Amino acid sequence: MSIIKEKDLTKLYYSIGEVASFFDVNASLIRFWEKEFTSIKPKKNKKGNRLFTPKDVITIDRIYHLVKLEGYTLDGAKKAMRSKKSSDNPVAASGINNENLEVINRLESLKSRLLTLKS
After folding, report:
1. Taking the complete model, does pTM exceed 0.70, yes or no?
2. Alpha helix stretches (DSSP H) within 8-89
3. Does residue 88 have a pLDDT over 90?
C-alpha cells in the first residue's frame, strides 16, 4: 500500500528534492501539500531549505496514497487524515474490531473448505 517503508528511512533529514523523488512528483507539490496539511512541519536551515523528518515523509506518503492513488480531494484527504489517526493499525483504521475479525477469519476458513469441496 505505502510507497515508503519506515524502516527504509535511515537518515535524520531529507531534502525536498529527495522527498519529491520518492513519490516521483515535483517539489512544488510537496511545498503545496505543506501549506495545505498542517501535519507536515519540515524544519528549515539557515538558508531556508526544508528538511523533512522520517515522520514527515510517512505523512506525505499517506497524503500521496489518499490523493493520487485513492482519488481523494484535498478536503477529503484532510478529513481522512483526521479520522484515521490510527493508520498504523489497518484493522483499527478500517473499523474492524476483534469480534468482526474473528467472524471474518471463520468465514474465510469456511470459504476455503467449500472451494476445496467444489474442486
Report:
1. no
2. 16-23, 27-36, 54-64, 74-83
3. no
